[in-house]
Structures are given as structure tokens and as C-alpha cells.
UniProtKB/TrEMBL annotation:
This is Carboxylic ester hydrolase. Keywords: Hydrolase, Signal. Belongs to the type-B carboxylesterase/lipase family. Its EC number is 3.1.1.-. It comes from Aplysia californica. PROSITE patterns: CARBOXYLESTERASE_B_1, CARBOXYLESTERASE_B_2. The lineage of its organism: Eukaryota, Metazoa, Spiralia, Lophotrochozoa, Mollusca.
Length: 532
């Protein structure tokens, strides 16, 4: 039993791991965002008098079905509905005295349109001496639809994340967690969310550390850019049209009509629209707005002004991020990569932008990466590097350079996850691809992962997993992610500045190295000049 500021919860103790973990699942942290609260900022939940069970996950937020999505905690997926704003708390039951434990809040990825807090089992990580929290937040059209005015400003999904962090600050002490030692961490769109929270004035003071895995605020898919071919307002009008709202020019009338529309019809219309416009990237995502003030200016502007929340950070990417998204490169027998094929691969990353900007960006990527046409293998490698650097690597390094300059008194770390899983189905020439680091962070040996047809992990997989779990929880506890696994392992030095750019190359034997590719930052700068 735990007393929260809203009422008493009953959880359950899972005794199967090495350290028993108390689990409180499906905790409502705001009112259901339905009816008149659809497309509105979250509202504090009602309190209750009797004991409320917190034994099963709450509903997932409405989203399209994606049978290829690899993460699913437990045998059954929770139902999906619009009433989905729940969080889950995992608290280890063994601790030293009454000292509160560091808290880690997981923000899931999925392109702002997929996923849930229940999709990954974080139990093993909780056994490492931290209280784990996983959250749901509104996705896709429900989380981000905007008419670009005060009536429908957008960013509801981001405000959900802030509401969850406020709930944690207010209540986590009751679960044995330290409300003043909170680390937020996420992957992909969850990582970009973490990055945006480090910039948002609304999130100031809600966390002390932040971990970003494959995604930052400067990633070209992370926020709405002026260079996007479909603006938020256009998308909102199209959604209104799809559900037969008559007055598309009056935001107040449109909001009222959209709040009464059938949720599933809205979801299906938005998915169909998204898949036509930009199948790789969501068209419903965070945007600059001053009504709520979640993101008052573009991330690049906030970073250049030093308007950043002063927290410790750890960020990085996998070695071959986009490899998983390029079907051409996974064919058997392999496709012969010509210059034209390489251009096609580069163009697939640019669908979200206007034709004019697509042309400029394609020219930039070609002139930077497709200069050596000596062989199919070289072109293949360069095309993948171009997409990785455009999407993840350049934005991460550029943002980190701004952060170490603007927040020099805090600790900042960079990594590249380079371990190719023994169960990888990617072509042999690829290393770790997007999302594969999660298998290792959340315990590569857990049943949820081995049941996916991967087979048992090998010794190197297990070693990397032990490292990852210790590094991430060490960072949450002390601000220093250096791991004792393997024995005599390397010290992970801070990324001090572009002139002392230490990073950890994570593998079965991890290595401390110096980042040498300054050209990726030049690329990102040129990309942002086109898009902004």
C-alpha cells in the first residue's frame, strides 16, 4: 500500500528477480483527455477515498497497429483508448535504511505516434537500486494537432510528459524515490522528448539528469520546421475535413467539432494522411508555441541563447541507426548500389519537406557523401552514413557543443553504441541499428526479448547488457556513468568541449575515444539553414 496525494494505491511485489520489486501499474496521473479535454492541456486527476488497485497496466494511447514493433512487455497488449494517461512505478524492496533511491523516468519512442510505457519491462533495471517510472503520453493527432493559434496550440503530448514529471516530484517519495534526484531517459522520439524537456522552461526543476538515446531537439524529424511541406494548420484542416467538420477557418468551431468526432475515425484518417505525406516521419509532432510556452522558440535559437535547463546529460546513437529503415540494403541477394540507387536512398529521408527544400537537401547530401563512386560497397556505406549523420549524429554533436558551452558546470557524456547483437538480422556489414541498444539497456536475457525468435544471447551480448545497465544507473545515482563491467574497464571521461570531445565506443570491450568528425556539425548547420 502506498499513499499518494490523490489516494491510496495497492501494488504487488514481484519476487522473481534477484531483488524483489514492488510494482504499481496503471496509475492515473491526470484526468482522461476525452470530450472537452481532448486537445487541451492535462488536468490534475480527482482524488479517491477507498484503496485503488494498481495491479494491471492502463490502456495504451490510441495509435496505429504496427506488427513489426519489437517491444511488448507481457503476453498481452493492454487495450487502447483515448483514456490512456497512466504511469507505472517499479520500486526495489531492498535498500539501505531509509535513504531514498534515485529515480529514472522512461519516455518511450515510436515517432510520437507509437508505443507506451508498458511496452518494455524495466524490472531488471529497477533491481540495480533505482526507482523506475514509465509513462504514457498522447500520440499522433491526439497529442499534437494544432491550428497554430491559441485555440489549438499543439504540444499536448509534451504537456502530458511534464504533468507526469510533476506527479513524480509530488509523489515518488512515497514509493521510496528521491524527488530531487530524477533522471529522465528515452530513445528515438522519447530521446528527442528528453532533449526538448532540457530546453523547455516549463520543465525547469523537474529533473536533474537527462539521457538521450538516438534523437535530439535538432534532429530534422524532432519538431515541426518551416521547411515541412505540410504545416500544422494545414494538417488540422485536413483532419477536420476528414471527420466532416464544416467550419475549417474558425479555430473555435473546428475545436468544438473535433472534440465531438469519433476517436477511431480521427486516428484512421490521421494515419492514412501521415502515410501518404511522409511514411518515415510523423507529421504530428512538437512545435514552437507560446500559448502554453512549452517550446517558445526553435531549439537552435534556445540553444544559441543558452536558454537550457542546467542538468547533467548523457547522449549518443548507434553506429548504423537508419540501416533498419532501408529495405534496399537488406535484400538477398544484395542490390547493386549505383549513384542513382544511392540518391533514391537519400531522398527517402526527405519526404516531410517541401519539394524545393528536398532538392536543396539532396544536393547537399550528394555533394558531401556521394563523391566516391568507385564501388557499390562504397556508395552503400556512404548513403547510410549520410542518412545517419543527417538524422542523428550531426544534430547530437551540434546540440552537445551548445550544451557544454551553455551549461559548463554540469557533466556531459557522449557515446556510440557499436555492439552488433548476436541475433541481428541486418546484413553483416551493418553494426548496431536503431533501437537495438534497448535490448541491452533493459537486460538482453529477459524473456520478453528471447521470446522474439532471437535465440539466447551470447556471452558478448550479456557483457554489453551488464555494462549498459550499470552505466545508465550509475549516471542516475552519481552523475558518472563509468562501469565496473568488465573488470578493469575504461573510465568514461566527460565531453568537455569540441576541443576535448571524449566519447565512449560501447562494445563488449568499450573504448574511450575522441570524436573526430567535425564535418557532421557543418552538415547539420547547413541543413538547419535550409529548414528554418
Amino acid at each position: 500500500m502506498v499513499n499518494t496525494s490523490y489516494g491510496t494505491l495497492r501494488g504487488k511485489v514481484d519476487s522473481t528477480p534477484s531483488v524483489p520489486v514492488a510494482k504499481f501499474l496503471g496509475i492515473r496521473y491526470v484526468k482522461p483527455p476525452t470530450g472537452p479535454l481532448r486537445f487541451k492541456a492535462p488536468v490534475s486527476p480527482d482524488s479517491w477515498d477507498s484503496v485503488r488497485d494498481a495491479l494491471t497496466f492502463g490502456d495504451e494511447c490510441l495509435q496505429e497497429d504496427n506488427p513489426n514493433y519489437p517491444f511488448r512487455a507481457g503476453n498481452r497488449r493492454p487495450p487502447r483508448s483515448e483514456d490512456c494517461l497512466f504511469l507505472n512505478v517499479y520500486s526495489p524492496t531492498q535498500r539501505n535504511g531509509q535513504v531514498p533511491l534515485p529515480v529514472m523516468v522512461w519516455i518511450h519512442g515510436g515517432g510520437y505516434r507509437l508505443g507506451s510505457g508498458s511496452q518494455i519491462d524495466v524490472t531488471t533495471l529497477a533491481t540495480k537500486g533505482v526507482v523506475l517510472v514509465t509513462i504514457n503520453y498522447r500520440l499522433g493527432v491526439f497529442g499534437f494537432l494544432s491550428t497554430e493559434d491559441d485555440t489549438l496550440p499543439g504540444n499536448y503530448g509534451m504537456l502530458d510528459q511534464i504533468a507526469a514529471l510533476k506527479w513524480v516530484k509530488e509523489n515518488i517519495a512515497s514509493f521510496g524515490g528521491d524527488p530531487n534526484l530524477v533522471t529522465i531517459f528515452g530513445e528515438s522520439a522519447g530521446s528527442a522528448s528528453v532533449s526538448l524537456l532540457t530546453l523547455s522552461p516549463l520543465a525547469k526543476g523537474l529533473f536533474q539528469r537527462a539521457v538521450m538515446e538516438s534523437g535530439v531537439s535538432l534532429s530534422p524529424w524532432a519538431v515541426e520546421f518551416p521547411g515541412n511541406r505540410v504545416s500544422s494548420r494545414m494538417a488540422a484542416r485536413l483532419m477536420g475535413q476528414a471527420v466532416k467538420c464544416d467550419d475549417l477557418n474558425n479555430s473555435t468551431a473546428l475545436l468544438s467539432c473535433l472534440q465531438q468526432a469519433d476517436a477511431v475515425k480521427l486516428l484512421n484518417s490521421s494515419n492514412a494522411f501521415n502515410n501518404i505525406i511522409s511514411p518515415v516521419v510523423t507529421i504530428f509532432g512538437p512545435r514552437v508555441e507560446t500559448t502554453f510556452g512549452f517550446l517558445p522558440e526553435l531549439p537552435s535559437t534556445l540553444l544559441s541563447k543558452g536558454q537550457i535547463n542546467h542538468v547533467d546529460t548523457l547522449r549518443g546513437f548507434t553506429s548504423d541507426e537508419i540501416g533498419f529503415l532501408i529495405p534496399l540494403f537488406s535484400r538477398n541477394p544484395p542490390v547493386k548500389v549505383t549513384v542513382e540507387v544511392a540518391k533514391q536512398v537519400l531522398g527517402e529521408q526527405l519526404f516531410q519537406f517541401t519539394k524545393r527544400d528536398q532538392g536543396k537537401l539532396l544536393e547537399l547530401l550528394e555533394s558531401t557523401y556521394l563523391t566516391d563512386t568507385s564501388s557499390s560497397e562504397v556508395l552503400q556505406r556512404k548513403a547510410l552514413d549520410a542518412r545517419d549523420n543527417f538524422t542523428f549524429v550531426g544534430p547530437t554533436i551540434m546540440e552537445l557543443n551548445d550544451v557544454v558551452r551553455g551549461v559548463p558546470e554540469k557533466k556531459h557524456y557522449l557515446y556510440q553504441f557499436n555492439h552488433r547483437p548476436s541475433f541481428s538480422k541486418a546484413p553483416q556489414w551493418m553494426s548496431a541499428t536503431h533501437g537495438q541498444d534497448l535490448y541491452f539497456l533493459f537486460d538482453v536475457q529477459q524473456k520478453m526479448f528471447t521470446d522474439q525468435g532471437n535465440g539466447p544471447p551470447d556471452a558478448d551480448d550479456i557483457l554489453v547488457s551488464q555494462q549498459m545497465m550499470e552505466m545508465w544507473t550509475n549516471f542516475a545515482k552519481t552523475g558518472n556513468p563509468t562501469s565496473t563491467v568488465p573488470t578493469g574497464g575504461v573510465t568514461w571521461s566527460q565531453y568537455i568541449s569540441p576541443t576535448a570531445p571524449h566519447y565512449l565506443l560501447i562494445n563488449s570491450t568499450s573504448e574511450l575515444k575522441l570524436w573526430s568528425q567535425s564535418d557532421v556539425v557543418d552538415l547539420t548547420r547547413k541543413v538547419l539553414e535550409v529548414l528554418e
